[in-house]
């Protein structure tokens, strides 16, 4: 294995009596595309929330490039180069697409997001250029001056992706980036994800639809009832009887 950029070691997460994650061990190699798949309720979003600092683990550690993330605030983790797209889009509906794309770039540069930033958006030529570039990459540039609230669901999800990529993260975590999209929008998003040639960017994509990730991932980890039941290349995972059982509810 090359450089391990993300190391999840012995992570448990309990919600009261429910063990949502149990002894998760996961190593992500720099520059690779990784998928975490599993049925609804398997613990995928919980794992992502633990990694990005939204939820403290009950036990265990998460390290990024050798630095401890456990106990750090989400914005601190973000500034270290970890960006994420949550399952529910988090955009600013009353801002234009261009403003939406500029906000995270400024937040990354300046620290915790401050609404005063909004007044100065157009006094930031570098950030403006970066935001336009990213909107172009995601096929959104033609809508840059429209309000985010006016966009279709698929466009909103791609805007969130833009808000993530504009930060040039080292590691990006996507929670069901194609959820709620039509087949056409799903395929388009998969193609965009494949074509984004961010230098050295490592991707972790959470999906409950196995077929979405087979064409995308170098490695797949399968989560079921809070535990990793299989790990490997798409081919290895596809043929694993434990995986078939988890998906067929066996
Ligand atoms: P997935 O993303 O794989 O569908 P989740 O991580 O959302 O699964 O949920 C895993 C389990 O943890 C589920 O049983 C869910 O109901 C439970 N859970 C998730 N978040 C919370 C929470 N904040 N409080 C209590 N239970 C939760
Ligand atoms: Mg989820």
Automatic annotation (TrEMBL):
Residues 6-250 form the ABC transporter domain. It comes from the Bacteria. The keyword Endoplasmic reticulum does not apply. Keywords: ATP-binding, Nucleotide-binding, Transport. One of its GO terms (molecular function) is ATP binding. The keyword Transport applies. This is ABC transporter ATP-binding protein.
